[in-house]
Design goal:
Blueprint (H helix, E strand, L loop, with lengths): L1 E6 L3 H4 L5 H8 L4 E6 L12 E2 L9 E2 L1 H12 L6 E11 L2 H7 L4 E6 L7 H6 L3 E4 L9 H12 L32 E2 L2 E2 L2 H4 L3 H19 L6
Parallel strand pairs: 1-2, 1-6, 5-6, 5-7
Antiparallel strand pairs: 3-4, 8-9
The structure holds adenine.
The site of adenine has 12 residues, from strand 5.
Length: 224
């Protein structure tokens, strides 16, 4: 899989991809993540990429010219299953979107910043708009990192234990059950006996029961 991310502050994301599961997935060739600094596509003297909004009002808008130059440059090299604009206006990101996007060969993310991007980019290029929640971030960079992380960890081989991604919260529509590690007893707090029993069927049943209980208590909306 290849993921291209266009941003005015790519440095906000670069260290993210240098750690943990994403780093390993990149190193092992499962995914190629390319960050593109929009300033590199500006024709202006000081690499400017934003301008005042027509009609007035506060804040700057990312201009159509550098963004379309960057997009045309990338589109000349490959086609994308989706060109995704990260925006609070978008469809709320969830596990099923992550699952679906993880099947793509090429994905392109556009991170907004300032007041937003020229609407004509959304009309001409963007195929999907994604929000990571009902709040406004300073830019789409953290949202792009969130989506990329959720997608990359689903790629076969990205996680050491193959079954691990499948047992994540939400993957079966339920929250994940509690987990414990050694020691089995700490300051009078004990790990549930069933997990120490070695009885796989009982452990599986307990975990499912705990998942349902936790989902009922914390996210009953998921059960509807
Ligand atoms: N950009 C700004 N806020 C955002 C959000 N909530 N989700 C995705 N992109 C954003």
């Amino acid at each position: 899989m290849r993921i291209d991310i266009i941003s005015v502050v790519p440095a906000l994301m670069s260290s993210f991809f240098e750690h943990s599961i994403c780093k390993r997935a990149i190193q092992s060739g499962l995914v190629d993540v390319q960050l593109h600094d929009l300033h590199d596509y500006s024709s202006k003297k000081f690499r400017q990429v934003d301008d005042y909004p027509f009609g007035g009002g506060a804040g700057m808008v990312i201009a159509i010219e550098p963004l379309s130059t960057c997009l045309d440059h990338l589109l000349a090299q490959r086609s994308y299953q989706d060109i995704i604009f990260l925006s609070p206006d978008g469809q709320c990101f969830n596990q099923s979107m992550a699952n679906q996007l993880s099947l793509s060969e090429n994905l392109l993310f556009i991170c907004g910043h300032y007041k937003g991007i020229d609407e004509r980019i959304r009309e001409k290029y963007v195929t999907k708009e994604i929000s990571i929640g009902d709040y406004v971030l300073s830019g789409g960079e953290l949202a792009a990192a969130v989506c990329a992380d959720a997608i990359i960890r689903l790629l076969p081989g990205a996680i050491g234990d193959e079954s691990s991604a499948l047992t994540d919260s939400f993957q079966d529509g339920l929250l994940a059950p509690p987990v414990y590690t050694r020691p089995a007893s700490f300051r009078g707090m004990n790990v549930p006996d069933v997990l120490l029993s070695g009885h796989e069927k009982n452990i599986e049943a307990w975990r499912h029961e705990q998942s349902v209980k936790r989902t009922q208590e914390r996210r009953p909306d998921l059960l509807q």
